[in-house]
Write a structure and sequence with these properties.
16% strand; 267 residues; globular; binds D-glutamic acid; four-stranded parallel β-sheet; alpha/beta; six-stranded parallel β-sheet; 10 strands
Amino acid sequence: MIGIFDSGLGGLTAVKELHTLSPGEEIVYFGDTGRVPYGTRSESTIVKYAKQDTAFLLSQGVDAILIACGTVSTTALSTLKQICPVPIIGVVEPAAEAAVRATRNGRIAIIGTSATVRSHAFDREIARLAPNSSTLSVACPLFVPLVENGFTAPDCDITRLTCEHYLAPIRDFGADTLILGCTHYPLIAETIARVLPEVTLISAGAEAARRVVALRGIKPSPSSEIRYYVSDDPTLFTASASLFLGHDLAGQVEKIDIERYGYGIGT
Ligand code: DGL
């Protein structure tokens, strides 16, 4: 059984891909909806939250963890790797590898939260994999609140204007490949694609899910149950998640008290 976590809805982009490719994989999902967003917070707060999220998933008996959050993957992965007793996978390496495979002109852009852009983790990984490429990272702090509040329809004017604002430098940079370095962003991928129609979009969450399947193998049908937990009232999460996943999660999302889980792992 694998544990997957994010600050909220974004990690569902990994859940959806993993469940499609390996439907027999048992999943426990945690969305920290009581403390979203993570991406505007300090490194020490993100590390503290990530340790608690990991501790909760370990308490559920998972044998691996996927950090389906760009912010935590770029800011806390090395700390979590040192203390987590089961394999723990982040989104940076799989997404960077996919982008390097996809690019034709060597110009790769990354969009993510402020914490992700501040970390330069994607730029470093791309430079390591393809030293002749060039990168541009742009923080898009308004995207997560838009997604969490349901402004995801492709014809939503507010989201379109926000995309035009944030993505203009990427058009000027001439990127042919764009990493959606925050796992929330694929929920507005259609709007992003309309603003940057010639650009290949790489979903960090989906690439990480493919890495999990490569590492753990395909667990075929029968389809396993997925358990969903959040840290605040499940209503909004349930509605948005049902829409994104394409089936009704009513009554299947449980609220937990994440503060009960210690800053030490597994406590
Ligand atoms: N999905 C998280 C990420 O990939 C969201 C960050 C946030 O909560 O700000 O970075």
